[in-house]
Amino acid sequence: MLRREERLEQVWNRTLEQIPTHFGRLAYLASLRDHNSGRYRHHGLAQSFGEEEAAKILRLSHETVFSEWLNFRLQEQHEDLDRYLNSMGQDRRSVLETWGTLAPYRVLAPAAAGGAERLLYETDLEIILELLRAESADSRSV
Fold first, then answer.
1. What is the spatial distance between Cα 55 and Cα 77, in angstroms, rounded to a whole number?
2. Contact by Cβ (8 Å): 69, 121
3. Which pLDDT does position 9 carry in this prediction?
4. In this predicted structure, what is the pLDDT of residue 58?
5. Average pLDDT for consecutive 10-residue bins of the chain (142 residues)?
6. Cα separation, 105 vs 30, whole angstroms
7. Which residues touch 56 (CB under 8 Å, ≥6 apart)?
8. Residue numbers of the domain that contains 22
9. Is the Cβ–Cβ distance between 87 and 27 less than 8 Å?
């Protein structure tokens, strides 16, 4: 019989698998973290498994998804972010421009990420965003 924590992890992983991109999962998990307290909250998980267990699995999931993203090759990150942007249903050029100005992706790293990990994440994203902006500009000129 599975332990309660293992059941929670299985349920949660099935939920995350519904999000088609790693970047989307990263954004979703970061959205479940209170930016003032750093505490993760998910009403449904907390009701089923308690706030402490739910917060723990959310934190671990966030760290895992972030680590997986960092281990992607730059081309894989590019393709994943491209799919994420396409799924947003917003004007791509506008999103890329806003991200270049406001850099909202910076708040998506988990609190446990070290300085080197954050630097790698932000540098990779800035490179990919520059490539996507160039691709967007090229498609306008065609």
1. 27
2. yes
3. 74
4. 93
5. 69 88 98 96 90 92 96 98 95 93 96 98 97 84 51
6. 10
7. 5
8. 4-141
9. no
Q: Is 122 exposed, middle or buried (0-12, 13-18, 19+ CB in 10 A)?
A: middle
Task: List, in sequence order, every residue forming a beta bridge with 33; answer none if it has no partner.
Answer: 40
- For residue 138, the model assigns a pLDDT of 74
DSSP structure string for 99-121: HHHH-GGGGGS-TT--HHHHHHH
Residue 25 CB-density burial (10 A; 0-12 exposed, 13-18 middle, 19+ buried): buried
How many domains does one find in the chain? 1
Q: Looking at residue 94, what is its pLDDT?
A: 94
